[in-house]
Amino acid sequence: MKAVVLAGGFGTRLRPLSCTRPKLLFPICNKPLLDWTLERLAKSGTNEVVLAVNYMAETITQHYGDSTHGMRLFHSREEKPLGTAGPIKKAEELIGHEEPFLVLNGDILTDFDYSKLMKKHTEKRATATIALRRVKDPSRYGIAELTEKNRVIRFVEKPPREKAPSNLANAGIYVLEPEIFDYIPNGRPVSIERDVFPKLANERKLYGYDFEGLWTDIGKPEDYLKANKLLFDAQIKKSQVGKSVRVKSGVEIKDSTVIGDRVFIGEKSKVGPYATIGERTILGKKVHVQNSIIFPGVVISNFTSIKGAIIGEEAAIGSHVKIGDGCMIGDHAVIRDNVVLSQGVTVCPSRKVSENVLTPRCLM
Ligand code: GDD
Ligand code: MG
Fold first, then answer.
1. pLDDT digits (tens, 9 = 90+) for 48-94
2. Rounded to the nearest whole angstrom, what is the distance from the C-alpha of residue 156 to the centroid of ligand 1?
């Protein structure tokens, strides 16, 4: 099986952390999202993967090289973003015309068995088959209306809630026939959701199947935090402590915690539940980290509490600091002693903060 992973996109809603890394390299339980996806592709019987990259392409290319998990990797780099269908057309030669292939939105975390969708697809002789998920808020997704026999009669991208024809959302996982290349013009941005799927639905060539199990995208900070929780509960299950971790006396490591290699945890600190601590991070005395993601190499000083927040690589957090409620701290930022940040405040990379900020703002 061959697969294309859409790995471009700017990750705008995850700024400032996406200013310094592509969304697909965001760690989930200390491993980049794209690693989880590639692992799953290999398990589903894929042997060749095209990574369609543009934003920060070189970071992804360097990170993965030309093979992983026993699969060959090709990097298809766009000079300008080509949307969600343009990159598929660009990969036409790499994919060839022999057999149907998989396409994945790279920002999805799932435990879906892709080979099952391939099987459904071949049964119906469709041009495209999409995996669907029941969702609460259809306005954030592409929505499909199905017949009893799973044919998509209508596909609408991000309809207003009251106009949504169903709550069956495009899960960002497709099987496509090579015939799809005829539907995508060359060399310009094309949206598979707005330009291609509605047309295929009209021509009765689009099918969809809903599934259950682990599935979430990491579009927004709260989704990203949730993705870590879901993955933990679904797959990891028991707290993990990496190699060469030093833990002082009186430390409590609670359930649902993942601690990377070479982390230091000072006296009487509490870690978890739902904390991911990146490698080389140093926590001082009586630090409390809960429901948060700490990237590698962060220093958090004594008596500080981090709850429901994301802290970027090598940030330095002072003592008696409180960071909460969806705050995102950019890489190498410095938060001085006694500062309180809450309500989704974001701090740009390398910014130094010495004042309390309690209303949603971006500190540039
Ligand atoms: N190579 C490349 N080039 N990839 C891109 C580009 C581009 O120009 N633009 C977006 N992507 C990638 C993103 O990185 C992401 O993995 C995927 O394409 C989808 O783009 P998003 O920007 O994340 O779209 P969305 O989340 O608003 O909506 C999409 O996903 C939903 C499921 O999460 C749509 O496919 C919806 O229909 C779907 O329901
Ligand atoms: Mg998305």
1. 999 999 888 888 888 899 999 999 999 999 989 999 999 999 999 99
2. 15
Please tell me whether residue 206 adopts helix, strand or coil conformation. strand
Q: Give me 98's structure tokens.
A: 């022999």
How, if at all, do strands 168-176 and 206-210 pair? Answer: unpaired
Domains of the chain by start residue, with CATH: 2-220 (3.90.550.10), 236-363 (2.160.10.10)
Cβ of 138 less than 6 Å from ligand 1 = no
99: amino acid identity, one letter: E
Which ligand number lies closest to the CA of residue 106?
1
Q: pLDDT per residue over 220-254, tens digit each?
A: 899 999 999 999 998 888 899 999 999 999 999 99
Find out whether the beta carbon of 48 lies less than 6 Å from any atom of ligand 1.
no
**pTM of the predicted protein model:** 0.93
Specify the pairing of strand 27-28 against strand 31-32: antiparallel
Tell me, using a 6 A CB cutoff, whether residue 308 lines ligand 1.
no
Sign of the alpha-carbon torsion through 316, 321, 15, 8: positive
Catalytic residue ranges: 158
Ligand 1 pocket check: which of 21, 105, 109 to mutate, most ligand atoms within 8 Å of Cβ? Answer: 105
